[in-house]
Amino acid sequence: MSKSTKARGQGVAYLFLSPWVIGALLLTIGPMLASLYLSFTDYDLFSTPNWIGLENYRRLIEDDPRFLTAIWVTLKYVALSTPLKLVAALAVAMLLNRASRAQGFYRSAFYAPSLLGASVAVALVWRVIFQDWVADPDRSLLVIVTLAVWQFGAPMVIFLAGLKQIPKELYDASAVDGAGWWRTLWSVTIPMLSPVIFFNLVLETIHAFQAFTGAFVVSGGRGGPSDSTLFYTLYLYQKGFTEYRMGYASAMAWLLVLVIALITALLFRTARKWVFYAGER
Amino acid sequence: MKRLGWHGVCVVLLVILLYPVAWLLVSSVKPANEILSDMTLSLVPDRFAFGNYTEVFKGAAGIDVWTFLSNSMVISVGSVIGNVLSCALAAYAFAWLRFRLRGAMFAFMIGTIMLPIHVLLIPQYTIFQRLGMIDSFWPLVLPKLLATDAFFIFLIVQFMRGLPRELGDAARIDGCGPIQTFRYVVLPLSKPALVTTAIFTFIWTWNDFLSQLIYLNTPDNYTLPLALRLFIDQTSETSYGAMMAMSVLTLLPIALFFFAFQRFLVQGVATTGMNG
Known about the structure:
The complex is a heterodimer of chains A (281) and B (276).
Chain A: H1 3-38, H2 55-62, H3 65-96, H4 103-116, H5 120-129, H6 131-134, H7 140-150, H8 153-165, H9 168-176, H10 181-209, H11 213-218, H12 232-242, H13 246-274
Helix pairs in contact in A: 3-7, 3-8, 3-10, 3-12, 4-8, 8-10, 10-13, 12-13
Chain B: H1 2-27, H2 32-36, H3 51-57, H4 65-96, H5 102-113, H6 118-130, H7 138-145, H8 150-161, H9 165-173, H10 178-189, H11 191-207, H12 210-215, H13 224-234, H14 240-272
Helix pairs in contact in B: 3-14, 4-7, 4-8, 4-11, 4-13, 5-8, 9-10, 11-14, 13-14
């Protein structure tokens, strides 16, 4: 290939990439930098932003009890919904993992709630079915947790694909050694599946931090009763788009990124202890 | 016998899992007072109230339900077209072409998949506000034309990488440049990945709430999820029946897509680890 055709090849590549490049510059990198800058201002959408340094961050942490409530509610939600969802997903995946012509049907059927559950319509159904819980500050969060756990289908499908990769010989060996079901679960299935468990755990955790629709619909957009369902994103929405305190909301958004990055890093650190990659010692 | 037991467990679990959906379907033809006092969550209505559906077709906030439906449809179909086109173009460059910044750009693209949208929301809103596009469909569709859903680029890249390289060599010998190779070889063979992208884009856009809530302000431009939300805020207890009926209508397209394409959907999740 001559030099000129090579250069032309590069040009063509950038031609194909051009929509993505424009989007990345104007709708991702630009806005990221802008929101970082805005988080140090008193921006309100209508007047020019004034630089106020770390004031937004200081106010969030020192003067805004609702912000701390929102963090607490969100952490509780993540800590409850993510493990429950993964346990349900793994249990059903193990149930379905056997040679049967009906497996495909069951897999699709158990997956269906994952498609429906993200909608306003299903959140409304939850609101009506659990109407007594919705009004009770001690239980309202559980309504949204059950709605999340109900959608275990997506991680279940991923687990099932992972289970199929585990060599049969390991189970045979385990049976020869006289290991029971429980023992086999902990010494074969879970170690062999640990990369997939880790993948689902990271994905679902990041996801759970950003939950919005369920909390919005169940609490009628207010995060009540008595702020018991004031999710982080819901509070961010209230500050940014109903009060137009956009500098403040930008600071919240960056703190969210920070928290998610921190927790993801933490998960990666613990992974060294329990995630087992076959072929590695 | 053991086999039968297994089917039994699966079916019982499914019935429990799908009970809320069945209850929704039945409630959509129940009178409102029966829905609210329905402590046993029964699947047998005492009285049928098909009027719930006629009430839905009268619309909400003085606006025809067909308006909401067509708004949702226009945004979803626009997003599908945008995503499939722009993501296929970018994916082809990443998977099949060589260029200097490929490694860095690819790493950045993967990084954006995990980025919470909240950090982009406010500047994006400001941009669209300056462009006079608030309360229109542009802020919802334009980003898709610019391949901002990096997840789907990744999905298509994975698929295109799996296509045999010899096909590209053969095409080059036949005198195809990169553009013809894309048009006549790679694109047609990538159909499964494009279909998966289209289905997921449609369903996710159809279900999307946050961005529609932010960008659409007047009821004329409302989509189905936003119209449903009107029910939460405004209606008295007497229109619970209509609310349930409208929920059924909202979920109907998703259900149809599910029945038509469930294999693609489940396969897509299994191979890419995609999450709803």
